[in-house]
Structures are given as structure tokens and as C-alpha cells.
Amino acid sequence: MNPPQRKDLESPVQFLKGIGPELAKSLAKLNLHTVNDLLYHFPRRFEDRTHLPELRSVKPGQFVTIKGRLSRLDSRQVGRGRVIIRALLSDGRSGIYLVWFNQPWVKRRLERYRGEIIAYGMVKDGQNALEMHSPEYELLEEDDSGEDFARITPIYPLTEGVPQWLVRKAVNSALLHYVEVVEDPLPEKILHHYDLKTLKWSLAQIHQPNTEAHRLEARKRLVFDEFLAIQLAMQMRRALQQQEPGNAFEIPSNMPERIAELLPFKLTNAQDRVVGEILGDMSLPAPMNRLLQGDVGSGKTAVAACALMACVADGFQGALMAPTEILAEQHYQNLRALFSKSGLEVALLVGKHTAKQKEKIYSDVANGKSQIVIGTHALIQEGVSFAKLGLIIVDEQHRFGVMQRAALREKGFGHPDLLVMTATPIPRTLTMAVYGDLELSVIDELPPGRQAIKTHWRTPTDRQKVYEGVRKLISEGRQAYFVCPMVSESEKMLAQAAEELHRRLSTMIFTELRVGLLHGQMKSKEKEAAMEAFRRHDLDILVSTTVIEVGVDVPNASVMVIEDANRFGLSQLHQLRGRVGRGKHQSFCILVADPTNEEAIARMEIMVKTTDGFEIAEEDLRLRGPGELAGTRQHGNLDFKLADLVQDGKMLEVARQAAIKLINYDPDLSRPEHRLLAKVVSEKSTSMANLPVA
Ligand code: ADP
Ligand code: MG
Hints:
By secondary structure, the protein is α/β, with parallel strands linked by helices. It is 39% helix and 17% strand.
């Protein structure tokens, strides 16, 4: 490999001053191959070494950095192959024992070292002196260049076999020799407008801040960059989508009257507003790309029905895709009941049909006889083709992959309109990060007359009382769900757990009642029969797995008991709970749980405290971080180096506005001052190709 001719951020690290091929090999273990990689390998934390505490002032429970010399190094064999190393670090007045477990190489290293050592960790009360267990440490004369030791020192993320001093040295060298060639992708105007520091300055200060205030300024700039790249990529995609020729629906002027005729109830204000937003999009020539968020029970189906009606009124077909057969079936029954009054043809297409039935459905869909088609994945089978599909609605969209939505869109007439619905509220910051290229409608109001569900947390020892409570409600004419424990992700094990719970409840507890069973391993026909029996009130109790999590709507069911509730995540508990509280009766959700860890306890407490899905989503984000939230799991857009969606929500909003402005002004970033920005964004777009957006 020849050294680069010119100073280039893509230069291999081995050509950095002080780093050779050997050290470069170590750095490669951290995926640090180029100078640029080093500049963007940010410190995990900093140690303020401008004033280290005196050892005698240090208290148990504190995280501190301490400095001194070692004495009394010894190692003790405890049990087979286990070894404890202890050494006294003292600053001349007092001392703290450093303790390592099963790291024999630490002893070898410390034995021959006489200089000062610096250690970081939590201080604990030991037997007769303070201790620090498994501290991070540095031997000052070996590990640190020693130059300007008394400063705020960056501590980098490491991996096995890559010492702290090496990363520090490499980054230091990269900054020293290369930071001058860093070009800023942001034009001066933007820096000025958003009060941001230059990239050069920020990269230097994020690694080696002069003050905490400087570090924060640097971080602000770099977080802005992270958000801006994604937001620009999404806004560009949005602009592209808008240019596609879609269908401009002619919306009849008497829509409000038609809606009033269609629905047995009056739309809530929120539903009314959202219907207006959707019909507004549909009437435009550009294809609609809209996300409809509404908490469980907020009445998204009625909104979907209004959109479908408008679509059919202009001679197009509409399709509604649901993630499960149970849900598709239920939508079908509801919508058919609504639309039959006006003589519209509604078809159901799911996997269970016989070949003969399928043939008939396919032909009705293909020749346009079926005006509204409701189904599962069966809708995107190869044999299905539509006469004139103008509107696609995807329910519980996070359960579908990109490909599935795209496949349905392919069957459309030109570029069909798309409405994706979700009952999994996600915090606004996440919505922007993940679905920034969709228009957003939110139903933020529940239909009138709903009583808030009362949620109680009971321990397993209270079970008898819980059963008595359920029995009483059933004697008043209500119905109950029992959700079996989430024993595993495996459908088979879940089915067994449900069967077991069903057996116990029907043969030992509620022997006088009608107890049904529903789980994912049952045949379609059996599932449907169980659901139908529960709906008709031929069953008092339905024992189920989480297959009832989405969409199931039986208003007379007013109590849900969730067994081992601590095994479920917050959003799942919220979805499950949404199956009750759908009618006029006071409803209850009983969490039977005996959690031992704090996070699970917090989940139970949040469920008891609130029924607001958005609040729950915010809490979920706080408890688990963005990577784990339903609907956004493993989402590439959430892969930030510095940004933190909980902490940096405001900055995300700023970056989003900046992106919208920029794209309005320079839609394909072709202006010369945006050359570098365009490059950053095109790299981002490539890595975003897998976004869950149709
Ligand atoms: P989700 O948003 O969870 O899909 P649904 O569409 O299933 O909610 O609606 C929940 C329940 O509320 C249904 O029983 C539905 O008939 C009822 N509902 C919806 N909108 C209204 C309204 N405006 N007034 C009264 N009841 C409504
Ligand atoms: Mg729904």
C-alpha cells in the first residue's frame, strides 16, 4: 500500500504519524480503517483530570477518577481457576484498594510498573478500606503520551485487544494532521441561521473539548448533522413521490351527508378532521402517502370506511389489507354491514378459501364487480389483479414489510393512494425519525361515552379474588378475556400455554361457565368459530394468546385478565388492554404479575397510571430506548452515533424544518453550495433503502 499523495480523509490509518501497519491492525478490530473513521469514533465519556479528588475525600457510591502509585500488589487463588488481584493505590495520605477478578494479565502488567496510575470506577466499602472493583485504569508512563495530562480526557469505546491509549493516540494524530482538510457540507448561511459551529471545530471539540460548554456546542452541531442527513433523504423521497402522477379523485360535494348515512354514529371532531385531510389528499393529482395514527379504540375503521366510500364513488376500487385473518374477517363483517345499505360490493380474500372460491373472488376483483376488497397477505398473491384499484389502506402497518406494501401498490391503477394506519402510537420524535416522508394524521380523541378502563395490578396470591371479580361481571352479563403468559416467542409453546390455562379455568375454576380457546396454531375455521362464538355471546370467557392483540372488537367484553403480565412489553399490554373498554360498560384490565426487576415494576405502574397510548409510548421510549419500540425495531434510521431521541427531540424538529426548507429551495440539492450535502444524503438514502415505507 502506498501512502496517499494528498491529504485525504479516506487515507488508511496506517499512514498516520505514530501509527504503523501493526497498530492499524489493532484499530481495524474497532472498524477504524480510515482517518475519517477515527474522526467519527466519538468518546464514550470524559474524565475531568483537571482536578482529581484527594483520596481521603472520596466516598462509597461515587464514580471517581483517582491517581496515585501502587503498593501491596497480591493475587489470591479462590476456587478452581479463579483469581482475585488486589493492589493499594495511594496518593501519599490515604489509599483505595483496586480489585480485579480473573484477569491474571493485570498482575503481570502491574508487577513491573513503578510509575503513577490512574483508575476510574465506583467506590465501594470494603472489609476495612475503600475498594474499587474492576476499574478502568491507565499506567500513565506507558499508556498516555503524558503531554497534557491534566485536562478533560476522552475515554473511547474499545474492544478486546485494543487499548485506550492507542485509540487516543490515533484520534489525536488524525485531528492534528487532518482536521484542516475537513470540508463543511453545511453552507455558511445554514450555520449562521441555526447557530451551529463549523464541522472542523466540532470534530476537534467533541474529542478534546476545552470546556464542557464547548463539548456541548460540538455535540449540537454533530447531532444536527445526523438528523439532517436522514430528514433530507426523506424529504427528497417525499418530493419524488409527489411528482408521480396519481389519480385525482372527484370527491362528491355531498360527502358529509353520505358519511352521515353510512355510519351509525356521528364522527368525532378528530375523525372528521382526519377524514378531511385524507379526502383532501385523494382529490389531488399526486398520490397520497399518509400515516394515520390513532390509539386503540379511537375509531380508525370508520375513517377508513369514509375514504373507501369516496374512492368507490369515483368509480375506483379500494383495498384494505389487515395482518391477520381474524382481523380481516372482522373488518369485512363491519364494512359489509355498513356498505350493503348503499348496495356496494364488498369481498373478502384470505388464505382459507378453496381453489374454487378463490377463482370466483379473483374474477370479481379483476372485472371490477367487487368494489371494496378486504384481505390479508392473500391480496398480494400473484393471481390477484384489480380492475381499477385507486386506494390502498394498510391496517396495523408495522406488521407488514416494505415488500408487501409495495406489492399491493403494484396492483394499483397508475400510482394508487396509500393510507397506512397504526394503533401503536409512537412518540412524535420517533414518528419524525422513521416516517418523516409520510404526511401524518392523528386521531387524538376517543368516541364519546367511553369510560376509562380501570387497570389493577394483582399478585398471583390474589388470584382467587381476581376470579371472583370476573365471575361477578359475567353474572351481570359481561364477557371476559384471559391472556395466557408469554412463555416464549414460539407459537407452539404459546398454544400449549393457552391450552393449559384453558384447561385449568374450564375444569377447575369456572366450571359453570362457557370457556372458549383461541390461539395461533388452530385451523382458520376453528379460530373463526371461536371468535364468532365469543362475538355472539355463546362464550363467557375467551382464553387466548396475543392473537387477539390487534383489532378484535367485542364491545360486551369488559374485563381482561393478563397472566404473568410482566412478561409483556408496554405497547403490547396497551394493545391487549384495548380489547376491552369498547362498549358502554365500565371495563377492567387485571395484570397478574409478580415482577422482580425494576423495569418490569415500572411497566406495571405505568399501565395502572394511564390509558393514554401516547403517554405509554413516551414512557416506553424512556424505559427501553428507541431501538426496541414496536414498529421501529431495528430501524436503520435510529442508528445514531451521538443523537438520542429522548434527549434531542427539539433538535430533530429543527433539523426537519431545515430539511423541508432546503428541499423547497433546492429540490435535488444540485446547487454548488450543496454539493457535499448531496453526497452525504445519497449515502444515507442508499442505507435507508430498507425503510418500512411503501
Ligand atoms: P380502532 O381505531 O382501534 O381500529 P375501531 O375502528 O375498531 O377502533 O373503533 C372502536 C369502536 O368504536 C368500534 O366499536 C366503533 O364502532 C366505535 N366507534 C368508532 N367511531 C365512533 C364514533 N364516532 N362514535 C361512536 N362510536 C364510534
Ligand atoms: Mg383497528
